[in-house]
């Protein structure tokens, strides 16, 4: 159970990192959207660190740096990466569902749902249509 | 045998108080049908070896009908307001994909399209496009809550699928904003 949440924590660390290069390429409403998304990931990370520490299991820390799937050099690339980050995060939270139950299951569902909603908002911002996928977080 | 009885019950031409049949006769007939329905599976056991009685409805069954109902609501909104088609069609298709996947996982057959279309959905043609969107939002929100609840109650093997459906419904609310 805690392994799945530890994987989710690692994903949240990576998402927070990615919003650095994303944020600097965005302006106006999109930049604000990136700030709010990053804050949501930080808040989820903090909650997970607390929870996993209380349980006494492993609490993965952040890596010093993460390899981005592609270089982000402009606004379009930043929006594309934001979509990708949220899709990957949704996938990790979804994978935690079968490994959890009770309050942890709800936590995992919230993580999946929030990431899926943010992915939809980023697709909208990037002009990607449709803005939704039928099964958020499911491996392609 | 059971099927025959059910068809008789559902026969729209059969009305209570029909000429030549007293109310008591009709009641007795219904009671007999109920009795046959109860004993039917027991007597059928011998035909198929020691197969157990049919299981109770799957806990995910309401989610299947809910998905088809939502799809029908989007279809109706698209018919009434074609300008919404590009926005709403992917969502209607997602609901149908959910129903198909749930049917596969639960081993149930999907009701035919015509049966699904008779689902009593709100009439979106009555108002404006914005009123139709608002009705869809309400239905989608209820569907999202139902799926989220089903996800927390589902066995591990079904939790990811139902979780994805709950998350998808949350994203549909974004489309309706």
TrEMBL record, chain A:
Domain DUF4439: 4-139
Pfam families documented for this protein: DUF4439
CDD domains reported in the protein's UniProt record: Ferritin_like
SUPFAM superfamilies: Ferritin-like
Entry protein name: DUF4439 domain-containing protein
From TrEMBL, chain B:
Domain of life: Bacteria
Name the UniProt record assigns to this protein: Uncharacterized protein
């Amino acid at each position: 159970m805690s392994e799945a949440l530890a994987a989710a924590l690692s994903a949240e660390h990576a998402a927070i990192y990615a919003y650095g290069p994303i944020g600097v390429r965005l302006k106006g409403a999109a930049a604000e959207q990136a700030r709010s998304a990053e804050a949501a990931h930080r808040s989820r990370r903090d909650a997970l660190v607390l929870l996993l520490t209380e349980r006494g299991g492993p609490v993965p820390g952040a890596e010093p740096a993460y390899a981005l799937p592609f270089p982000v050099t402009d606004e379009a690339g930043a929006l594309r990466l934001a979509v990708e980050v949220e899709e990957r995060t949704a996938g990790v939270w979804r994978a935690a569902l079968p490994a959890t139950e009770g309050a942890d299951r709800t936590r995992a569902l919230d993580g999946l749902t929030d990431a899926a909603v943010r992915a939809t908002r980023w697709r909208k911002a990037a002009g990607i249509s449709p803005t939704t996928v039928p099964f958020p977080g499911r491996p392609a | 045998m059971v099927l025959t009885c059910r068809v008789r019950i559902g026969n729209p031409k059969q009305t209570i108080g029909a000429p030549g049949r007293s109310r008591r006769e009709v009641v007795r007939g219904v009671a007999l049908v109920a009795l046959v329905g109860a004993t039917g599976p027991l007597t059928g056991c011998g035909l198929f070896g020691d197969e157990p009685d049919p299981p109770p409805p799957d806990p995910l069954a309401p989610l299947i009908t809910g998905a088809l109902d939502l799809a029908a609501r989007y279809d109706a909104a698209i018919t009434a307001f074609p300008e919404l088609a590009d926005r709403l069609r992917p969502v209607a298709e997602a609901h149908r994909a959910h129903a198909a996947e749930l049917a596969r996982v639960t081993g149930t057959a999907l009701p035919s399209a015509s049966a699904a279309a008779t689902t009593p959905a709100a009439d979106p043609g009555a108002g404006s496009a914005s009123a139709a969107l608002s009705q869809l939002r309400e239905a989608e929100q209820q569907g999202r809550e139902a799926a989220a609840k089903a996800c927390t109650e589902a066995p591990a093997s079904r939790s990811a699928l139902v979780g994805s459906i709950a998350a998808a419904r949350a994203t549909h609310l974004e489309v309706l904003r």
